[in-house]
Amino acid sequence: MEIGNLSGVAMLLILALSSTNGNPETSATSVGNLTRSKSARQAESYYEKYEGLAVASNDLGKFKDLLSPILKRRVSGTPAHAAVRQHVSKTLTDYGFTVWHHEFKDRVPVVDLVIRGQELSFTNIVATYHLDNTNGPKRKKLILACHYDSLYAHALSSFVGATDSAVPCAILLDIARVLAPLLSKVENLIFKRASGGRCNRRVARHPREMENDTLGVGADA
Q1: How many Å separate Cα 122 from the centre of its chain?
Q2: Exposed, middle or buried, 207 (CB in 10 Å: 0-12/13-18/19+)?
Q3: Is the pLDDT confidence value at 26 over 60?
Q4: CA-based diameter of the chain, in Å?
Q5: Burial code of 156-165, b = ≥16 C-beta within 10 A, e = fewer?
Q6: How many angstroms separate the CA atoms of 174 and 58, rounded?
Q7: Which residue has the higher pLDDT, 17 or 84?
Q8: Rounded to whole angstroms, how far apart are CA atoms 35 and 14?
Q9: Which segments within 49-118 are labelled E, that is strand?
Q10: Residue 173 near residue 88, CB atoms below 8 Å
């Protein structure tokens, strides 16, 4: 916030000086008064709009609460993966998002005697925040995506994928937590979490057939 204010003051000062003519002393005084007045109003407006948002987004305790249920081995098709899906879905529902699951099947590569190239079931989580003024002008949509399963290395692996992609999932949930009270004043926001790091052809090629006419996007693993 300090950097933003300093940039604003500097810009106002430069613009004011570039439009100043006449007596240097009078001009300097006028510029100083004008700059202080505008910068003060700007700072007041800035803090009123964004200070609460900055404070809310800097709650490490709440972020850890969102991350903890995800920070486990969560291979697609396992009970742990289902538990993470339930946590993500419930959290977004509690924040006021409409949540639905996009289920599909795909064949996986051969890894070992457990993951041997068979067909497995996957579930994408799509959460959309709907605005009340649906009869207004068409709004832009912001789509944030990550995958919520963890890599299967081998049967005895303890890999939990903290940065790939437990923390990104928690970040998206935290963004939803902070923005939920403000979303009625901004554009539609769609969260997409891809199971298995991909979306199937229906999502990729026919987004308008999906529920609520939303665009589905999956992140590559």
Answers
A1: 22
A2: middle
A3: no
A4: 87
A5: eeeebbeebb
A6: 10
A7: 84
A8: 10
A9: 98-107
A10: yes
Residue 188, C-beta contacts closer than 8 angstroms, at least 6 positions apart:
128, 129, 130, 131, 139, 140, 141, 142
In which residue are the tokens 């604003």 written?
8
Do 78 and 113 form a contact (C-beta atoms < 8 A)?
A: no
Average of per-residue pLDDT across 70-96: 94
The C-alpha angle with vertex 128 and arms to 146 and 119, in degrees rounded to 5, equals 50
Is the alpha carbon torsion for 173, 178, 183, 189 positive or negative?
Answer: negative
Percent of the chain with pLDDT over 70: 54
CB atoms within 10 A of CB 89: 19
Structural domains of the chain in order of their starting residue, each with its CATH number = 2-56 (no CATH), 60-213 (3.40.630.10)
Residue 149 corresponds to which tokens in the numbers above? 């399963």
Rounded Cα distance between 144 and 173, Å, is 10
Smallest CA-to-CA distance from 82 within 121, 132, 50 is with 121
Reduced to 3 states (helix: H, G, I; strand: E, B; else coil), residue 143 is: strand
Cα of 170 vs its chain's centroid, Å: 9
Distance (Å, whole) CA 112 – CA 140: 45
Q: Compute how many other C-beta atoms are within 10 angstroms of the C-beta atom of residue 28.
A: 12
Tens of pLDDT, residue by residue over 153-170, are 999 999 999 998 899 999
The two structure tokens encoding residue 125:
């989580």
Please tell me the distance from the alpha carbon of residue 204 to that of residue 198, in angstroms, as a whole number: 9
Provide the sign of the torsion angle of the four alpha carbons 152, 156, 160, 164, taken in this order. Answer: negative
